[in-house]
Amino acid sequence: MARREITQYFDDIDNTPLTEDQVHVVRFGVNGINYVLDLSADNAQKFEDALAPFIEKAHRAKVDESTHYDPKVVRAWAQKHDYQVADRGKIPSNVIEAFLKSTKR
């Protein structure tokens, strides 16, 4: 028996199915936390339009080394402080925020 795995992409905002070439990966950060969205062209443009007034008034910042963290250290800290985190994969943003706050990063 053969097995075939198919990857299907969906817009993170409206759940519209997307082909691989329709996916616009949008990366952004707020308060030291980085985020990623998979969006259609329309929703990527809406996102950029919504941020435009803020970006227009903002200035670019240098990367702050203090916001970088070692995932192994975060996982160990989280487990010690009764947060549930998987041994692999994405660490939930609330755990990262708590880690950064508690370690004054």
From TrEMBL:
GO MF, one annotated term: DNA binding
Transmembrane segments: none
InterPro entries associated with the record: E3-bd_dom_sf, Lsr2-like_dimerization, Lsr2_dim_dom, Lsr2_DNA-bd
Pfam families the UniProt entry points to: Lsr2, Lsr2_DNA-bd
Keywords: DNA-binding
Highest taxon in the source lineage: Bacteria
Span of domain Lsr2 DNA-binding: 69-99
Domain Lsr2 dimerization: start-end pairs: 1-61
Keyword hit for DNA-binding: yes
Protein name: Lsr2 family protein
Organism: Corynebacterium diphtheriae (strain ATCC 700971 / NCTC 13129 / Biotype gravis)
